[in-house]
Amino acid sequence: MHSTIYQIAERPILPDEYVGADNVEAADMTMIDYCQEVSKEERAELIKALVERILPAGMFSLNPDGESLTYKGGFTEWSREYAATLHEKAAAIDETNLFKYVGPVYRLQKAIANPLATDALFITSIAGDSCFADRSRELMRLIGNLQIGARLYIGAILDYHF
Questions:
Q1: What is the mean predicted confidence (pLDDT) over 32-44?
Q2: How far is the C-alpha of 61 from the C-alpha of 65, rounded, in Å?
Q3: How far is CA 154 from CA 6, 45, 46, in A?
Q4: For residue 158, which of 43, 31, 15 has the smallest C-alpha distance?
Q5: How far is CA 27 from CA 11, 19, 73, 118, 135, in A?
Q6: Which one-letter DSSP state was computed for residue 8?
């Protein structure tokens, strides 16, 4: 199956700072068989999909430059709902299902690692020559520190197979 890797930062990302398909590594609970750059046309559609379908509804708007997003608020409400979801999943765990292969523990782990429940991966930091494409938890952690009106900038966008 295919999905998307987004490089996202709180500052503009210059084209020569874009991560390449050769230096992306899979973080915990992710798997990348291979990845490749997307076309300019696909890029525009994928940025639009990020705002309209992946990020929590109404939390961001796409700026006229088509390359950055403006935070409109809503993290507190979203995190309250997310915490309730985690509590519900944790409450489903008991001694009879604790070690089931695909049971409530697994579903709780997935919800913690990937609060947006998306196959998209996100690169929010780069260390040296490599970077890790991670589930949505690190992205939401970054968003949780934003002030209304803050911008997020899109760098590389890669298609990946898993």
A1: 95
A2: 11
A3: 7, 13, 11
A4: 43
A5: 23, 15, 28, 15, 8
A6: E
Residue 146 · residue 40 · CB < 8 Å? no
Tokens of 121: 């991966």
The residues near 76 (Cβ < 8 Å, ≥ 6 apart) are none
Q: Are 32 and 133 in contact (CB under 8 A)?
A: yes
- CB-based burial label for 124 (10 Å; 0-12, 13-18, 19+): buried
pLDDT (tens digit per residue) in 41-74? 999 999 999 999 999 999 999 999 999 999 999 9
Distance from the Cα of residue 16 to its chain's centroid = 22
Write out the two tokens for 18.
Answer: 């874009």
The residue assigned the tokens 């309730």 is: 84
Q: How many residues does the chain have?
A: 162
Sign of the torsion formed by the C-alpha atoms of 22, 139, 5 and 46: negative
Distance in angstroms (rounded) separating the CA atoms of residues 90 and 105: 7
